[in-house]
Structures are given as C-alpha cells and as structure tokens.
Automatic annotation (TrEMBL):
Highest taxon listed in the record's lineage: Eukaryota
Gene field: PRMT6
Enzyme Commission number(s) of this protein: 2.1.1.319
InterPro entries: Arg_MeTrfase, Methyltransf_25, PRMT_dom, SAM-dependent_MTases_sf
UniProt name for this protein: Protein arginine N-methyltransferase 6
Region (Disordered): 1-42
S-adenosyl-L-methionine found in the keyword field: yes
Length: 374
C-alpha cells in the first residue's frame, strides 16, 4: 500500500489529520468522536488502502502465496464440488475463481474496498458470473442468501495478526459456515527465533569504513547508528535468510480457526513461551517472528503448508523483526528464553502490538513493547 494510505491507517486520522471539524476560521474545537464512529473511520481507512492496485499486484505476484492457495483449493476439490463457498476479503477475486474452477456451485466473493468493482470485471472476463457473485461491503454487514459449505480467505498480515482481519473470518465462520464446514486455511502457527541481522551489522560497521574510502575517520558514529537502528520500538518488516537465525526456531502459538473462543483469545493476546540455545558465537540483534498456515489435504493428500520462514522461499510477508536496544554477544549454547504476547494495539486495534520478555545467558531479564509503524 502507498505510504500515505498506510500512515492514515496507522494514525487513524483523516485526510488532514483532523476529524468532525470544518475550516471556519474561528478556531472551533473538533467535536469528540464516539468509539463507534472512530472504529468506523479506522475501518474505512483500512478498506481504502486496498482500493489501489499496488497492494493487489504485490500479493498476486507473490508466487509462494498465490500458488499455495491455488494448490490448497485444488487438493480440496472433492469437498468443494457442487458446494457453496464464501471468500472473505476477496480483493480482485482470484481465490474465488480458483474455487469456481475447483467445481464450487456458488462462490460469494465479499470485498469491502472499492476494488470489488474490478473483481466483478475479472469474474465477467472469465465467464463465471453464474458461479461467482461479488458482494460489496464488510463481511460483518453483508447478507448471504444461504449458509456456506466452506470459507476461503487470505487474511494474514505482517506478523500474522497485523490488520486484525482474522476477526472478520471468525465472524463469518460463526454466522455463515455450516457445522463441520471447511476452512481454507484451517490453522496457523507462530514461530520465534533469535537473530543476528547481517544487514544491520553492515550498516553499523559502515562508519568504520569511511576513513578507508574517503580519508575521514567517522568510527565514532557506530554507537549513534546502533541507537538509531535498534533502540526504537517499531516492528520492522524485513526479509532474512536462514544464516541470520541463531538458534532452533520455537513455535509459541497455534491457532485452530475452528476452535470456539478464538475471538476472545485474539483480544486478550496470543501468548507463548520459548527457550533455545544459540548455535555459535555472534552478535544477537533481536528476534524474528514468522508464521505458517495449513490447508487441509483433502481425502488422500497431505496437508499443504504455506510458510513465511527465512528457511523457505521468500514471500511478501517477509519476517517481523523485534530489535533489542543494543546487540548482545552470544556464544555456542548460550541459553535464550522468554515470553511473547501478540495483541491489538490500544489506540488502533488493526495495528499489531508485541510485548516481549526475554533473557539472554546470565543477563537480567528485560522487557520491550513493540508496535507496527510506518
């Protein structure tokens, strides 16, 4: 999404950063907003972010993501053939069309952003108007003519839970999915691992190389660069490689989308503990968080996993990085432990907040509070 639109989403502000106020030259204060109107405004700004083609280009161009959905749907052809499907957050409609190609009798493609108009054109271009019905509006307010046999949705945000779209899927599950109906994907898992960020190390070390290149010693800026790059509380979205990972990844949470009470768990915070030992000697810069989702395998196939791990092919989700305030040197078998909690931000529930408690070796336990920013 564009930087301008993303800033609007994060801040919850309008076009000029003010709400419920007109320019009248008299300095009149803005009328206070009710919680309901603030939520409605935040939601609309969120939907507006998906009205631009750029974000859809990025998602569909992600071959790992799009092929996983295509294959996950194909493997469930027997369960979809002749059945009804609800696509939550259909975007440009490609997942709905995959379901129709798998034999679904009717697909309800629900999309709250203005991109629904382009989705309808795509459906028409592919000659699927009789099978795929594009319905504009949030899934929380759209009315379907029937219960559905399956729900498909690409709801995952950065760090899995940024944007809070999973709550919409769970709402649709409770209201529209038949008992025992199919969920695509059916579950998600979250992983955490300590990292040594080689790119960050290079950026900090750059200041010691200036003298060699230009004859001016600027090595004194290394500590300043470290503070600028690490001491913030932002969740950094960045791609890593397996070489950046310092210890065996730890799964700290599993979300079964059919599990009753999952909505309440998300509101309270997805929490889990971890403990691992470092592989060798390196500067530890923080932790990386990533996820995987699993599609049922159908009658005979094994389940299909879409992973955003740094050990797997890259996706547009990359990894969510949680930097310490400064590097910590670890040696082989240094014990690293802690607890991580992922929950909606208090000022904007669509923003992801992460509370991290950690201990490295013999150092005292520390905490850090992170949020997804621009």
């Amino acid at each position: 999404m564009s930087l301008l639109k993303k800033r609007k989403l994060e801040s919850g502000g309008g076009e000029r950063g003010v709400t419920n106020e007109e320019e009248d030259g008299g300095g009149r204060k803005a009328a206070p907003q009710s919680p309901g109107s603030r939520k409605q405004e935040r939601d609309q700004l969120y939907y507006d972010c998906y009205s631009d083609v750029t974000v859809h280009e990025e998602m569909i161009a992600d071959r790992v993501r799009t092929d996983a959905y295509r294959l996950g749907i194909q493997r469930n052809c027997p369960a979809l053939r002749g059945k009804t499907v609800l696509d939550v957050g259909a975007g440009t409609g490609i997942l709905s069309i995959f379901c129709a190609q798998a034999g679904a009798r009717r697909v309800y493609a629900v999309e709250a952003s203005a991109i629904w108009q382009q989705a309808r054109e795509v459906v028409r271009l592919n000659g699927l108007e009789d099978q795929v019905h594009v319905l504009p509006g949030p899934v929380e307010t759209v009315e379907l003519p029937e219960q559905v046999d399956a729900i498909v949705s690409e709801w995952m945000g950065y760090g899995l839970l940024h944007e809070s779209m999973l709550s919409s899927v769970l709402h649709a599950r409770a209201k529209w999915l038949k008992e025992g109906g199919l969920l695509l994907p059916a579950s998600a898992e979250l992983f955490v691992a300590p990292i040594s960020d080689q790119m960050l190390e290079w950026r900090v070390g750059f200041w010691s190389q200036v003298k060699q290149q230009y004859g001016v010693d600027m090595s004194c800026l290394e500590s300043f660069a470290t503070r600028c790059l690490m001491s913030h509380s932002e969740i950094v979205v960045q791609g890593l490689s397996g070489e950046d990972v310092l210890a065996r990844p730890q799964r700290f949470a599993r979300l079964d989308l059919a599990r009753p009470g999952l909505e309440q768990e998300l509101e309270a915070g997805v929490r889990g503990r971890f403990r691992c030992s470092s592989f060798g000697s390196a500067p530890m810069h923080g932790f990386a968080v990533w996820f995987q989702v699993t599609f049922p395998g159908g009658d005979s196939e094994k389940p299909l996993v879409l992973s955003t791990s740094p050990f797997h092919p890259a996706t547009h989700w990359k990894q969510a990085l949680l930097y310490l305030n400064e590097p910590v040197q670890v040696e082989q078998d240094t014990d690293i432990s802690g607890e991580i909690t992922m929950l909606p931000s208090q000022d904007n529930p669509r923003r992801l907040r992460v509370l991290l408690r950690y201990k490295v070796g013999d150092q005292e336990e520390k905490t850090k509070d992170f949020a997804m920013e621009d």
